[in-house]
Amino acid sequence: MRIAVTGGTGRIGGHVVQLLADERRHDVVGLSSRTAPYDDPAALRAALDGVDTLVFVSSDGEAARVIVHHHKVLDAAIQRGVGHVVLLSGLDADVDSPFCYAYTNGHTERLLRASPIAVAWRHAGLVGLPPGRAVDRADAAGKSGVRAVP
């Protein structure tokens, strides 16, 4: 199986690429702003050619631009026949939210639900913190049930 990971050279996407590559069970491709820029539909289509599963780590930046990026990635995935998308979304994904990233994640989830692609999402929180920091803060506050994902 061929798996592509957007943001494959970033902190989160790069970690996903490494975890998948360490398993040595799949052909894993880390996409980057050089190999598959979100603003270049032709490059996205080329990068997704032959991909079975896309692990979709969101782009970053202004909400309106992120939404455009997400449309382009999903359009390319549909055009190239990607069969499955795993979306890293947010805990608070909601198109009615005033918080920009909750809105963008909710919008992307809505697009995926309406697409012909099989989809799974992981709802993450505290993505910007270094590994272990969420646990440290939770323990210091006396809260349980919170764990950091390396």
Your description of this structure?
It is built from five helices and five strands, in the order βαβαβαβαβα. It has 150 residues and is of the alpha/beta class. Helix 2 (41-48) packs across helix 3 (63-79).
Question: Which regions are unreliable across 5 or more consecutive residues at pLDDT < 50?
Answer: 131-150
The neighbouring-strand order within the major sheet is: 2-1-3-4-5
Helical amount: 40-55%
Kindly state the number of beta strands.
Answer: 5
> Order of SSEs, N→C?
EHEHEHEHEH
What general outline do the C-alpha atoms trace? globular
Mean pLDDT level: 81
- The secondary-structure class comes to alpha/beta
What share of residues are in beta strands?
Answer: 15-25%
What about the largest sheet?
Answer: 5 strands, parallel
Task: Please give the radius of gyration in angstroms.
Answer: 16 Å
Count every helix, treating DSSP H or I runs of 4 or more residues as helices.
5
Q: Note the gap between the termini.
A: 25 Å
Keyword list:
5 helices, alpha/beta, 150 residues
Summarize it.
This protein is α/β, with parallel strands linked by helices.
